[in-house]
Amino acid sequence: MELEGRGAGGVAGAPAAGPGRSPGESALLDGWLQRGVGRGAGGGEAGACRPPVRQDPDSDPDYEALPAGATVTTHMVAGAVAGILEHCVMYPIDCVKTRMQSLQPDPAARYRNVLEALWRIIRTEGLWRPMRGLNVTATGAGPAHALYFACYEKLKKTLSDVIHPGGNSHIANGAAGCVATLLHDAAMNPAEVVKQRMQMYNSPYHRVTDCVRAVWQKEGAGAFYRSYTTQLAMNVPFQAIHFMTYEFLQEHFNPQRRYNPSSHVLSGACAGAVAAAATTPLDVCKTLLNTQESLALNSNFTGHITGMASAFRTVYQVGGVTAYFRGVQARVIYQIPSTAIAWSVYEFFKYLITKRQEEWRAGK
């Protein structure tokens, strides 16, 4: 039996669904007939049918296809959210790390491990003491990570197209991470100086403005970038190892490069742990340059410690080779969830924002 009109979702002249044909097959035949009728009047052979591309309207677009159209703004927004959340969640552990890297800690600030340190800080100094300086960190982390991820994504694509067209290049990933670090540290370094001085045991600073004013008046504006070269010397190899490890693990855990939260978390955590352990000596030197600890404790050293060479020499004179690995446990414990949070949040917001942009464009 044939339908005379387009009833029940059919097309005029289309065979109705019978016992041997499912409604889905009938809908597909309807689409073929529509294509054939449309072509009959316009330069094609009348009645020629070409099966259309079938798409499930409820299915999400392929994740890997989305970032190709992601804008710089998308990368910046996703990066800023990821950076702020990462630093806020892990800030108490960051406070412990700073104290455990102290070369000459006060007897009341000698800790055996991270949990003991966190418990003693809360018990003796108050519940909110590990959070002091969080506001300046969040303020710096937003723009720093926005620049960081936007620069990384742009350079990764550009360099990969040159080095390995149509594929993924570990060299491009590492190089993009290194260049992105230059922008990140330029924005973040002043916040790091203020944060670490407020985290130290018996810090005289209770407010960010007090710390900024004191550093500016006593040491000058250059104090906010005294550790910049050491920070770069640490973060450039850190990010090179970090990004290369992350992309390498993604190729194994998520070869289709779809939105896969578990693979982002696992890859980010492993990449952060490897990079953190390898660069701990440089982080100890950076902490010394930021806090100028030897001056605060009236040690035998005179004058400001400036430059990476001076920091390396001071660390060795005070504690020997083992001093370069002070706080390595706290640093690794900090970086594992920190990088996992950063990558998973960044990939989620990149996916979410780009998906909404695609839906908005499709609806116009």
Topology:
Layout (H helix, E strand, L loop, with lengths): L22 H18 L24 H4 L3 H18 L1 H10 L13 H12 L8 H30 L6 H30 L8 H12 L8 H26 L7 H18 L1 H12 L1 H4 L11 H12 L8 H36 L1
Characterize this entry briefly:
Keywords: Ion transport, Iron, Iron transport, Membrane, Mitochondrion, Mitochondrion inner membrane, Repeat, Transmembrane, Transmembrane helix, Transport. This protein has 364 residues and is mostly helical.
Describe this structure in words.
It comes from Orycteropus afer afer. One of its GO terms (molecular function) is ferrous iron transmembrane transporter activity. Keywords: Ion transport, Iron, Iron transport, Membrane, Mitochondrion, Mitochondrion inner membrane, Repeat, Transmembrane, Transmembrane helix, Transport. It catalyses: Fe(2+)(in) = Fe(2+)(out). By secondary structure, this protein is mostly helical. Helix 9 runs antiparallel to helix 10, helix 10 runs antiparallel to helix 14 and helix 11 crosses helix 13. The N terminus is likely disordered. The protein is built from 14 helices and no strands.
List keywords for this structure.
364 residues, 66% helix, globular, MCP_dom_sf, mitochondrion, mitochondrion inner membrane
Total strand count, please?
0
Rg: 29 Å
Q: Helices and strands: which structural class? A: mainly alpha
Largest sheet: none
Q: Could you list the spans in which at least 5 consecutive residues all have pLDDT below 50?
A: 1-19, 31-67
Helix content: 55-70%
Q: What is the overall silhouette?
A: globular
N- and C-termini, Cα separation: 40 Å
Number of helices: 14
Strand content: under 5%
- Element order, helices and strands? HHHHHHHHHHHHHH
Mean pLDDT: 80
